[in-house]
Amino acid sequence: MRSGTVYTETVIWSAPEAFAADVPYQTAIVALDEGGRVTVRVLGHRVVIGDRVTEAEPRGDIPFFRKV
Amino acid sequence: MPARGPAGDGGVRPTNGCKLVIEMRPVAVVGIGKTAFGAFADRDLRTLAVEAGEKCLRNAHAEPSQVESFYLGNFAGPSFVGQNHLAPYVSTALGITGVPSTRIEAACASSGSAFFHAWTEVAAGVYDLVMVVGVEKMTSQPTARVSQILAGAGDCSGEMKVGSTFASLFAMIARRHMYEFGTRKEHLSMVAVKNHAAGALNPDAHMRKVITLEQAMNAKPIAEPLNLYDCSLVSDGAAAVLLAPLERAREFTAKPVRVLGVAQCSDYVALDQKSGITTFPAVRRAAEQVYRMAGVTPREIEFAELHDCFTIAEIVATEDLGFVEKGQGGPYAFAGCTALRGERPVNTSGGLKSKGHPVGATGVAQICDLVLQIRGEAGERQIERHSLGLAENLGGSGATCVVTILGAA
After folding, report:
1. Do A62 and B273 touch (CB under 8 A)?
2. I need a labelling partner for B401 at 20 to 30 A (CA). Which of B49, B278, B308, B391 fits?
3. ipTM of the predicted structure?
4. pTM value?
5. Facing residues of B310 across strands?
């Protein structure tokens, strides 16, 4: 499982039509420990810049991360 | 004298990385035309584009048969209205037939890019009279569908598949800018207040509504920390310009406006692939080139039309263009320096925020708004120092940027 640190984040209240049922939901750019950054969905508790996060169960091809 | 040769032989290098060195001709804007921006249930893409184009031709006292090459800036006509092959679809309706007719797509910088390519043709001496029209018809789709179509300007294999919107990408830029530089929510909101104040004076603006700082701070959330008033509008509209060699400009207008410099630069499409997100390398590179071409410094720019797709984008642009030090864009806007009567007015048209943002029309509309100010035809929003203006047109989250400097000829 990949892990890393929250580089930036937001909570989305107005979604594209494919995600309208999920509102509100949090997305974040995570700086991965293995290098590089990835844009992810956040599960569970809200996160802020600097929080440690780890990859949760994948759902389809969407990367989900949660707070450590 | 050879017309072309290797770099360093006395020719003018047109843009960074271009190996072909030719004598670039001075170019002028000799005509402008715009529709009002708004939500027009009874107007289709082509009638909007034709209205702007016809106004532009009249403004330049030119006939359609004189146009030698045509460019159309349009982001997503095929998705919004189901029509492809848009350039001849529009140009023939304008009576421009037989000549090259080319559509350019570069997200929100589509017509800025079309302007850049049109300028290149005139400057290089390929053609004399080149028209650029930018158009988008967006309001025939519901908001969630519009968000889905706009998301196509991001990286659909990564950032967009998790449910990102363009608002959410710029919200993440805002969060990081706040974290790194101490930018505050009220700094963002002041950009909205300022642009609505200017837009209220623009008869062609989509939302001619003055708002208070309190209203701007407390609107409904879209993508935290951005709320409704941090976001530009979903609009219908079109804008057009006609370019000609400067030496021929007075055949068409008594008030030619010179293109002192224009540059287009590119970067990664995905926000998470950029080395940092509180600055746009494509903007910085384009700005560096265009200041060099025009022979001016950032401090000399008297006014600007900047790409305020979201309030944070205008703040970052004032920094990337060198109007202020990095990180100081928020306080600079909050202090009123970029207001209509401030030291360096930004978005005297109302910007994308109040004037409206028909995506494919925006780049050319910015050029039209600079020309109005330089000619002294901006009406109630006319500013005092208006001889040297800059436009910055941003595509996506900074993957394309076109920067243009115009001046009185």
Report:
1. no
2. B49
3. 0.98
4. 0.95
5. B231
